[in-house]
Predict the 3D structure of the following.
Amino acid sequence: MSRVVKIGDLEVGGGNPVRIKGMLKTPTTKRESLVKEAMRLWEEGAEAIRVAVKEKKDVEVAKFLKKYVKVPLVADIHFHYKLGLLVAEAGFDALRLNPLNIYKKKEVVETIRAAKKSNLSIRIGVNSGGFKREFASEEALAKKMVETVEEYLKIFEKENFFDIIISLKSSDVLTTIKANQIFRKKFDYPLHIGVTATGPFLQGVVKSSLAAGVLLSAGVGDVIRVSLTTPSFWEIKIARFIVQFMKKRRFFSEIISCPLCSRSEVNLIRRVNEFQRVVDKLEKEGCSLPAKIAIMGCVVNGPGEAYQADIGVAFGKGKAAIFKKGKILGYTNEENLIEDLIRYFNN
């Protein structure tokens, strides 16, 4: 098990739930849009938000954002270590340092001491894109990433600084998995997991799900950040899906529905999408809903899936049976599906 490290008041590692982190994509100069984005991430379920701090004026953004969102803020620092010294007193709760562009020992030590003085944790984050050369294999790159972090850690540990989170990310799924596996065998610092530079939306979702799924299934990963070339709220949605489907946390009702085949006599795509919108609305209103709801389109696997869910329907010819905890409660048809199913939620 990893050790516990705090990002502000948020505990990470040590058996705490896998945390969801987001990152702002709006330029810090566009304050109104920045606030809207931050609030959307918070509403979607981000438990910490990272902000790129490129220059001195960006440091002021933490106190401004904290008027609107109640989650810890992490300053993302590259190249200019003095920005790390400034954010330590500017309202940020943690900072991220990159060993590949802030590497002079004197500068790193100065940043560590400033963070310690302000009670900030530090994420040491290595991305494979920071190495400007080719590697013979995924494993060779993974090992180099871990070696880079190991050398950096020596500076921190010599300063008796242990409030550290680690990330080892690549645009390659196998490299990301391997690097995190190697690191976890050697150290107990919490791991912030994710694939970086994932490409177009669907490719990014698949890459992120594969890497995080493999790692979480092995108990590796304390924070997840999904990185997509999309608006940032999608990253939080996908991260929550991954964490829930790996059975690490529960955020929402899961809908089970079949992929359809020529046996189906119901417009299942339409009905499932309609039902999802109703469920989303009910959850936003704070309603208590079943953990797993099945909507199945035919008699092959439909009854079994509906039987195994908390509540479900299985369509046959012209009508559907409503199951709850393995018992048939009644019958419905396509037009009345949503109304009848919801009526049985709390019966």
Remarks:
- The mean pLDDT is 93.
